[in-house]
Amino acid sequence: MSAKLIDGKAVAEKVMSEVARGVERLKKEKKIIPGLAAVLVGDNEASKIYVRNKRIACEKVGIYSTQELLPGTASEEELLGLIDNLNKDPMIHGILVQLPLPSSMTNGNPSGMNVQKILSEVAPEKDVDGFHPINLGKLFSGMPDMVPCTPAGIIKLLESINFDFNGKEAVIVGRSNIVGKPIALLLMQRHATVTICHSQTKNLSEKVKRGDLVVAALGKPALIQEDWIKPGAVVIDVGMNRLPNGKLVGDVDPKAASKASFITPVPGGVGPMTIAMLLSNTLEAARRQSS
Asked: Is 189 considered catalytic here?
């Protein structure tokens, strides 16, 4: 058996086509162009590429986009002031703060309280990344509003192959607020039985083997081995790891495709969906702010 690839590019194109039609309707009916501001602090090359790709995607669907650049030496106060200005800007309906932030701004701890403080300054209605505590709380309560983009994209990918969530064993490797925890909540809302694993999980391979669905989001190249995969499982590889030779690889060993029924490629799987769902969230934010 060899897994069928879940084409994230194709699914993302469908989402973006829907967004483009929605943007056009909003322009005609309310004379409003959805606006997205990307805030980038410092000179992280990967972040620059992500922001550029987001800007190109915005142009494709008719969303107004702006980049707000701050030097790596910027203070927390400067960043908070910029976010405050964007919160008040009527042309901006969505704000994203590109992560990671410089270590000087997070005391060397990219998951520290400083990051959450900064993300919490984004107005919840403009939080198109879905990271504000209010939006995460709504997701936890089963009343999702702005859903984090990568988990929302994963659900779209699974729907594209008509995955039956009900009662399935889902194993998530990774517990971040960006992917692991939100996708667990979304899967439970669809009646999957969810196990969350992480870097300290014992007997990780045995737990992964139980999964009818495996979502790998730990950030370790080829961590998930072929013999960890239950025959016929669906594998979603969220990992984006750059090797010293420049090659981009996921968290799942490519040989796992011999055991899975469906698997996402890296690149071209989850990545395109993240940007597509960001645009979808921006359109929805503009709709709500104009009602």
From this structure: no
